[in-house]
Amino acid sequence: MTNHWIDFKNSDCILIMGSNAAENHPICWKWVTRAQEAGATVIHVDPRYTRTSSKADMYVPLRSGSDIGVLGGMIKYILDNDLTQKEYVLHYTNAPFIVSKDFDFKDGLFSGFDEAGRKYDKKSWSFEMDENGVPKRDMTLKDPRCVYQILKKHYDRYDSKKVSSISGSPEDQLLAFYKAYTATGKPDKAGTILYAMGWTQHTVGVQNIRAMSIIQLLLGNMGVAGGGVNALRGESNVQGSTDQALLFHIIPGYMATPRSNWATLEDYNKANTPVSKDPKSVNWWQHKPKYFASLLKSFYKEADLPTAYSWMPKLDAGQNASWLVLFDKMLKGQFKGFFSWGMNPAASGADSNKTREALSKLDWMVNVNMFENETGSFWKGPGVDPKKVKTEVFFLPCAVSVEKEGSITNSGRWMQWRYAGPSPMGESKPDGDIIYELALKIRELYKKDKGAFPDPILGLNVDDWGDGHVFDPHKVAKLINGYYLKDTVLKAPDGTETVMKAGTQVASFAHLKDDGSTCSGNWIYTASYTEKGNMSARRDKTQTPEQAKVGLYPNWTWSWPVNRRVIYNRASVDMNGKPWAPQKPVLAWDEAGKKWLIDVVDGGGAPGAKHPFIMRKHGVGQIYGPGLNDGPLPEYYEPLECPVTEHPFSTQLNSPTALMFAEDAHKRTTCDPRFPFVCTSYRVTEHWQTGVLTRWLPWLTEAQPQMFCEMSEELAELKGIKNGEKVILENPRGQLWAIAIVTKRLKPFDVMGNPVHVVGIPWHYGWVWPKDGGDAANLLTPAVGDPNTGIPETKAFMVNVKKA
């Protein structure tokens, strides 16, 4: 997330798409309301008329899964009407870059597509370089192979009539929406996008967000107050867990997971350290060897760097180890054991029947949670004979959040320290203690019995986890920040030298080294716990008058990186360091003091000296992004299960690179008259995730007692269903019952001349409790995913609905 929740109040137009923010993130709505009170327009685009819609100034319906059509239409609207923030686009994006002459796009497919392998060779997507190895630019934006012209050509097909026909969004409402949002393309205006799982849980999830990123760059809305592309996280610490790498493809600090084809540390650094020849490109990832070396030393403090790297677990080259793949392999008997830690995959995973069957193929499973859930109890669930399940299940009770101390990092990247309230009940323990005790016990067994490969276990730096018995969150927070392993001399710009003693906390990631003399568990968190203390525990609301204009609160907790509150804030000023929006500046250049004021500057150097998007190799925002698995520009594809056999933009119906499993093909349906209705899943305020926390609380189950299905009055009449009646939803993957809620808030969509009905179900329920609460929505969702992330497509799939 680029900005933060308080910053929403600085927006002139807030687009909420792929989210029901007023219901699912009610605290953030305080700041949306502040923006409205100051004159901002709030737009909600969604298949349902929700609580967010009721609070918005403008509501636009769209069929679930048609977002790229709608966003592509806005890109065309911007370009056709010359609404870009020109100076920003020219200097701060790759719009002028010249793309390889080998690049092509025809009928829904980009150049380099391998049909047999269902993947792209991306070589032809590259940029042309000059004699110095810098991307060629056409600052007139007239070259037919410059990104700007390629973008214009690509989205020329996305006219409002076609967009309306496939999305079901009325054309007049689309155009009103486009006009309102694109008005933020003026330098002194800013628009922001708030999205959530409604965008990510699609086979084109990454490209949904890419499409909006393109819009934000064209309008000059990145790096500014009231701008950005902002993900509303579903839990208080989702941002923190992502930062600390609870994903298969990254290690802490957003560095790539080591792979088998990178056999040595030198191989890893060579493959993962970008090189830029542009003197104005900061190319911050050039420092990755320092961050990676410091991470290795945080894991294996006593080992030299090559040895530490050899101990790191490695993925096989090309291996996808995302959620859907793991459970597919588990179903095929390729796992012996499984830890389900604070999760409930038997209810939360797509195609839950497949997931539950996969769990039955294990030798053992450990379920760490606060309450009994569907995962720990799968062996006695609906239709399961416990005698036929070989899996031995262990349940470890863990403490709830208020019973343990530590940090969370919220949606705005603010790391905030929380203190323990009551002690854990019964035999439950904080997760840190469970992990710590487990590590100590495994080490003890390795010392006693030896093992096939004991070095990574016995060499693990557990000294910084606790006192030998009890986990210490402060020790771990200090390790994540990092400290010096050897006495180190630091040289200041004025030539003065300071000796930093071994054991001293590192004050900035600029001080991390690649020679093994520093350790840091996560480079982006360096400066969070320094010799001055725990920065995330600060509670000081003091601001300068300029900071108060936008609400930065730099002394309240701590924000990564280096307490910067708005990422890419260098793009908030022009080439001379003057804010685009003087009334709400994020940065300003002090000519007399030769320094930046207000926020912590992204990248350093004088105005115009550095490109603003410092994490990108070429230093600019990527309108054209040649690194993704499904194309350098977002292209419209239908969900893998859809109610149409064609769409108006190409003959390529679905994403050609989507993650899918051949053996599941018989369970997927497209335009099947047996399953004619689009279904989408969502959350309600009263329940949390799969309901493991909330379904056990009587006052919440009283408010939302059981599974329901929302449907339009038109569909209810068609199917003879009355409000409050029990209905069955079904498709080839399974079925579940729900209570019908017949409502005006859902309407049939006119899609290419045919009526398409959408129904919606919440995903919080499961068979364990309450006994008459229903079962998981994911019994119906397909095990197909985005080709970049593997996230399942649970927001658009096909079902039948009938009276029970």
What portion of the residues fall into strands of 2 or more residues? 15-25%
State the low-pLDDT regions, or none. none
Distance between the termini: 44 Å
| Count of helix runs | 23
- Shape, per Cα inertia axes: globular
Helical fraction equals 10-25%
* Major sheet strand order: 27-29-28-33-26-32
Main pleated sheet: 6 strands, mixed
Task: Classify the oligomer.
Answer: single chain
Give the beta-strand count: 33
CA gyration radius, whole angstroms = 27 Å
- Average pLDDT, all residues: 96
Structural classification: alpha/beta
Structural notes for this entry:
This protein is of the alpha/beta class and 804 residues long. It contains 23 helices and 33 strands. The strands form twelve sheets. A six-stranded mixed beta sheet has the order 27-29-28-33-26-32. Strands 3-2-1-8-9 form a five-stranded parallel beta sheet. A hairpin with a 2-residue loop joins strand 21 and strand 22. The longest helix has 19 residues, at 431-449. It is globular. The mean pLDDT is 96.
